[in-house]
Amino acid sequence: MKIQLINPNTSTAMTAALAASAQHLLRPGNQLLAVTNAAGPASIEGHYDEALSVPGLLQAIRDGEREGVEGHVIACFGDPGLLAAREIARYPVIGIAEAAMHLATWVATGFSIVTTLGRTKVIARHLVERYGFHAQCRGIHAVEIPVLALDQDPDGLRRLMRSACREALERDESGAIVLGCAGMSHLAQTLQDDLGVPVIDGVGAALKLVETLGELRLSTSKRGDLDFPLPKSYAGFLRGFAVGA
Questions:
Q1: Contact status, residue 146 vs residue 129, Cβ threshold 8 Å
Q2: Measured between alpha carbons, how far is 141 from 241 in angstroms, rounded to an integer?
Q3: Which helix (H) or strand (E) holds 54?
Q4: What is the pLDDT of residues 8-61, one digit of tens each?
Q5: What span, in angstroms and rounded, lies between the C-alpha atoms of 88 and 220?
Q6: How far from 27 is each of 3, 24, 173, 202, 209, CA to CA, in Å?
Q7: DSSP per-residue letters across 58-107
């Protein structure tokens, strides 16, 4: 099974780091194709960034399916373009926020999200409400570090994250931590060992769910709203995104 891991921002360094942390999770015989968005923001830290990441993300979905990909992971905690991606894909598409929140509810009655910048907390809150986890998500916290600065001081980041997660667990009275950025995925096991509670990395969670769906031969329904887009023309620089016109 070939699984596409899509980094919706344009940082090739982040894509390489995500692939390195996810590769060991693959079942024998499965293949990981790590892809960087070819058009979009350098990092996704707000509504504007998220919106402008979607066209390149959708193009990556289309390209991947032509290359024989049988499942896709959207590696950004905002789950940008998730339903649109499912609409154009034949195979499963999983967003890391949705995957992480689902898994958190299977191992704890309440979870806390620890993310990067405070300005992105509202995006996480919108996803919590959309996915129906408002009762289980007991708090959303930010460490105020930009996405592209997460790799600048590894030891300092670990100390900061450990402190922020401990404070979240105590304040929220939660039993698990959800990491609110794909760029934090490499910290999951270390933090879990330090804190003694489940720490869920959405990249790994989404990857394993895609594998499971593939093994069960389950894919996105093409009945109703997730059927392929209706044929019509698109104008301007989006002309190439027309489907079946």
A1: no
A2: 37
A3: helix 47-66
A4: 999 999 999 999 989 999 999 999 999 999 999 999 999 999 999 999 999 999
A5: 10
A6: 11, 8, 35, 17, 12
A7: HHHHHHHHHTT---EEE-STT-TTHHHHHHH-SS-EEEHHHHHHHHHHHH
DSSP string of 110-163, one letter each residue: -EEEEES-GGGHHHHHHHHHHHT-TTTEEEEEE----GGGTTS-HHHHHHHHHH
Contact predicate 123/78, CB 8 Å: yes
Dist. CA 237–CA 112, nearest whole Å: 41
Maximum C-alpha span of the chain: 55
What tens digit of pLDDT does each residue of 55-87 get?
999 999 999 999 999 999 999 999 999 999 999
For 6, the enclosing helix (H) or strand (E) is strand 2-7
The predicted structure's pLDDT at residue 14 = 95
Instruction: Give the predicted TM-score (pTM) of the model.
Output: 0.93
Q: Is the torsion defined by CA of 122, 183, 25, 178 positive or negative?
A: negative
